[in-house]
Amino acid sequence: MAATATSGASQTIRGVKNTVEEKLKFVTSESEGIEPIMSFDDMCLKEELLRGIYNHGFEKPSAIQQRAIRPIIERRDVIAQAQSGTGKT
């Protein structure tokens, strides 16, 4: 029963986060090279990491993850700012 309540709360939180992300505006100092990557599969992540991401119930990257993961993997200096709870960690 507790798992069901937690699942429902988790889905509600994700729904709110998706609504907030749709309204966000992104500003970058470089107009080139910061294209959003819409799925974890397209980020060139290791298979073990992808398995963990999907096992934890994440279906698609958050807006900040779509823009920050690729430059981080490319070892570029990245300063990213996003609201609390959007997946920066």
From TrEMBL:
- Alphabetized InterPro entries for the sequence: P-loop_NTPase, RNA_helicase_DEAD_Q_motif
Q: Which organism is it from?
A: Rosa chinensis
The Enzyme Commission number assigned here is: 3.6.4.13
Give the top-level enzyme category. hydrolase
Q: Is Cytoplasm among the key words of this record?
A: no
Please report, in chain numbering, the residue ranges of the motif Q motif.
38-66
Protein name per its UniProtKB record? Putative RNA helicase
- Entry keyword set: ATP-binding, Helicase, Hydrolase, Nucleotide-binding
Domain DEAD-box RNA helicase Q span(s) in chain numbering = 38-66
One GO MF term attached to the UniProt entry? ATP binding
Specify the domain of life of the species encoding this protein.
Eukaryota
